[in-house]
Amino acid sequence: MSHQSHFELRRWAYFFLFWLVVMGLGVTATEYVIGPVMQRIFNDSGPYQWPTWSKIARMALLTLFMGFFGGTVCWFYDKKSSGR
What we know:
Blueprint: H1 3-42, H2 53-82
Helix pairs in contact: 1-2
């Protein structure tokens, strides 16, 4: 593997991991912090029900997909704008 392709792979991994962490934190905050607060404020219908395992699995797949997609788009844009 040449130095240039190794650099590009590392750069892509950086963007992928960045988006993965950001999306993971965003989904977790939405589901466990913002969700119960918004339900309590707007719909006082009883206690908040935590997500089921199937919903957690769907959220994990969405987070993984968005990390992959967002990281790839950011890497491609950075590559095109820098002229590499």
